[in-house]
Amino acid sequence: MTVERTELSPGYSIARLLRGGWQLAGGHGDIEQPRAIADMRAFLDAGVTTFDCADIYTGVEAMIGEFRATLSAEDRARLQVHTKFVPDWSDLPRVDFDYVERIIDRSLLRLKAERLDLVQFHWWNYAVPGQVETAMHLRELQLRGKIHNIGGTNFDTPSTAAMIEAGVPLVSMQVQYSLLDRRPAGLLAGLAADSGLRFLCYGTVAGGFLSSRWLGKPAPAEPLANRSLVKYRLIIEEFGGWDAFQALLRLLDGIARKHGVSLTAVATRWVLDQPHVAGAIVGARYAEHLPDNLAIFGFTLDEEDRAAIDALLVSCPGPLGDTYTLERDRDGPHGRIMKYDLNKE
């Protein structure tokens, strides 16, 4: 199975399936670090050459750095690592160039890299000024050769436009995008059409909810097993509730059986087929689900499939508003589960 690729910026080609690193950061069960590092090889060998991580994913940059150190020069050249720059909520008033450079240098050290392939910037609180200035500090580090590409993470449309208008060469925006959450298809898609911005999408299978495991099952009882399930259970409620979710699963299961793939593969394929989407980030601790993930490149959704999905989605608009707006309300159910100060040493 050949992994599709796309050019994210001139001369910079990535796999359209990205190996996500959030599940390696804890909160999803114990991690066998030697196994996780060894299994990274399976992704690289399969053509999944692009890994996603973050400065705030505890220990993950260092794990990928250990993996990078085991590679030949040829394989290191094939591997792309996308990280993030996420200053803590409490630090936002104090972010200056020295702060930005210190965090970027730390990521370079952890990843054992001479240059970061893509740095995806996030700013927790729009009420604190400095977002555009901080993005321009990243631009200065790009000009100094420490960063190859600059992207964003979870910015709404006006904030993304402000950075682009200031001269920050954003190539991508990492967004939550799935059949359950189609907010990026709204205002942000219009900006992407005008600017060439591409989407790197997480949550495409809603933390595992978009799978046959949940087909025909009752809603899970509290407390849920991990923070990912809590997050996406809230999204299911925004989508229309458990009954609407089950209707979606039944439809996807029929399409999956028709093509001989998993329900999860259908959900991921749908996201990859949306305008402006460069890639889907699939979280993985180990490589046991890799063959199923690769199946998304072995089939095509036909007109009948797309029409059936569209017909169901009309009655289930999902979360409304601009990208990541619900999550920015710290007093709301989505904001209350977030962790805002994870970038401490």
TrEMBL record:
It comes from Falsiroseomonas algicola. This is Aldo/keto reductase. CDD domains: AKR_unchar. Pfam families: Aldo_ket_red. InterPro entries: NAD(P)_OxRdtase_dom_sf, NADP_OxRdtase_dom. Residues 17-312 form the NADP-dependent oxidoreductase domain. It comes from the Bacteria.
